[in-house]
Amino acid sequence: MKKGTKRKARHDEELKQTKKRSTKIKPPKPDEYFEDKRNLEDLWRETFPVGTEWDQLDSVYQYKWNFSNLENAFEEGGVLHGKRVYLFGCTEPQLVWFKDESKVVCIPVVVAVVSPFPPSDKIGINSVQRESEEIIPMKQMKMDWVPYIPLEDRESQVDRLKSQIFILSCTQRRAALKHLKLDRVKKYEYCLPYFYQPFKEDELEQSTEVPIIFPAEPKPVFCEFDWELDELEEFTGKLIEEEELSRDQKDTFKEFVKEKVREAKRANREAREARRKAIEEMSEETKAAFGNMRFYKFYPVQSSDAPDVSNVKVGVWAF
């Protein structure tokens, strides 16, 4: 047989085999199902959990928390429907059960503030180590209110959208923390938005207690002095009796307390005066806005993918 004839016969046999294979009926592939993303599904994740330790942030997102209650609040009939809302996050460490094991978990919480204008542009920094709360501009901590864009609107031009939802955002990069001083890093762990309510006396104006951190030797004296309830001589004598204060530091301590009381009373007077002046200069529209401001607190709802937090909710306005 000639070479060309052999090659043709082999080619014809390959064509037959190809036709046989092609006539086999392939079973249909099962339809793949992808759950549609909800329009506000990532709202809680986009809200910065202010006051959370940096090294705990990853643990907050280790569970698939369900905030459908927050999403539903923006639907028709919900408490946030059709309103301008400002949201900030925080975390609450709680001992909870999950999959037959008890553990301390950082539970994410979202606070919604209904207000026609930003409810605050300041951050309050407080801890047990600080004598008093430090109040600073949000932008000093690289935080600000920014518009939240729902998923269905993310293909649109942001400047054309009239957002009604604003979230507290922080642009501080975690990778850059190693270049910051420890005190600066710690400030992030003790901060929460500072809300000024001009029609309500705050704790500073009402309090008659003064936190005292007296620089004594060999260790500082930590205590609280109430200028209405405590008598200074008796108060000092008790500290000496309990060996918290040495006898030779008695007079110095008393003068120190008197100065702290004077500072606190002055701060109270200035706070009352500032509040009175703010109310006088306020428009009727702004007064009404402060009066109608509402706060709502949202915890994750129960699901099989995350711990049940229904028994550890704090706050009368928690959802």
What summary fits the major beta sheet?
5 strands, mixed
**Domain module count:** 2
The best one-word shape is globular
Report the C-alpha radius of gyration, rounded: 31 Å
User: What is the tally of helical segments?
Assistant: 9
Oligomer type = single chain
Strand order of the largest sheet: 5-6-1-2-10
Summary, kept brief:
The chain has 319 residues and is an alpha+beta fold. Helix content is 30%, strand content 20%.
Could you explain how this protein is built, in words?
It is a single chain. The protein is α+β, with helices and mostly antiparallel strands. 30% of the residues lie in helices and 20% in strands. The strands form three sheets. It has a five-stranded mixed β-sheet, with no helix packed on it. A three-stranded antiparallel β-sheet has the order 4-3-7, with no helix packed on it. A two-stranded antiparallel ribbon has the order 8-9. The radius of gyration is 31 Å and the shape is globular. The N and C termini lie far apart (89 Å).
